[in-house]
Amino acid sequence: MHAxxxxxxxxxxxxxxxxxxxATEVYTSSVNAFRRVGHLSSEVLAMPYIPLMMLxxxxxxxxxxxxxxxxxxRGIPAYIVIPKNAPKCKVDxxxxxxxxxxxxxxxxxxxxxxxxxxxxxxxxxxxxxxxxKRIISGQGTISVExxxxxPQIDTIIAPISxxxxxxxxxxxxxxxxxxxxVLAAEPRGANDAAQSKAAGRIITLPETNTIADGLRASLGExxxxxxxxxxxxxxVVDDADIMEAMRLCYEILKxxxxxxxxxxxxxxxxxxxxxNPAWRDCNHIGIILSGGNVxxxxxxxxxxx
Length: 305
Ligand SMILES: Cc1ncc(COP(=O)(O)O)c(C=O)c1O
Hints:
- The chain is an alpha/beta fold.
- It has two domains: 8-30 and 133-304, Rossmann fold (3-Layer(aba) Sandwich); 36-127, Rossmann fold.
- Helices cover 44% and strands 17% of the residues.
- The chain has 13 helices and ten strands.
- The longest helix is centred in the middle third of the chain and has 17 residues, at 133-149.
- The chain starts with 7 loop residues before the first strand and ends with a helix.
- The protein binds pyridoxal-5'-phosphate.
């Protein structure tokens, strides 16, 4: 499962003056989610009678759909706890890949209580969507693949929500190339990670408000130290810029990306990145476009506004 499943597109966008001030090569990595959770196979999926359960914390369903499929291929059930406000297309994908949806209320407490109940009733093995070493190390394969294919990359930008993706990306990238910069992109309406970095401790927000529905979770105790120590900066972007980046992904890259997935491109295009002297010599930027679950109805509505 390598390059064929991991669709990798190298696009030179530096001629697009409006895109970037600095000459920047944009690499897109359409993440092979199945491979990301494939890391679980040796430990968890080898236990055929233990079903899997994932607590979905506003999590992009890349992982949950992939987990559903991984479990299905092993002939074991996967219970996916999903809050009632999850986008329909994401829920549909879980069902499509054989996962059993367990609804919870939107609050973190309800999600955790629901998960505990499922664990008790089924004896399932809990797989946390980001605060789990297996998930984090699976995410690290993105950096390995990206740097294998484009070793000249000097900066990687990835979305941040609970921090599993960026933690894996940062740990793997910096162990391969300690000089590489790793930046996180976060929506302004859910900027708890940026606030946490500034405060030096985990900050959780009472509420979030962003089109990037996959990026509303808070850091966990495993991801926070990695974000604190290995993520060089968190670039906060507005929803309008996320939508514009998404449009460019469709129009120029021909890649179907959801808002949460397009945020890295929005960050690279942002004034705060381009005008920051610290990033002036970022010449080869790897942007991780992390998910493509787009509810087209919602998307069209948001464009009409
Ligand atoms: C599409 C997408 N990209 C990136 C992320 C960030 O993942 P993490 O929670 O590991 O930071 C998410 C989170 O769910 C997501 O949905």
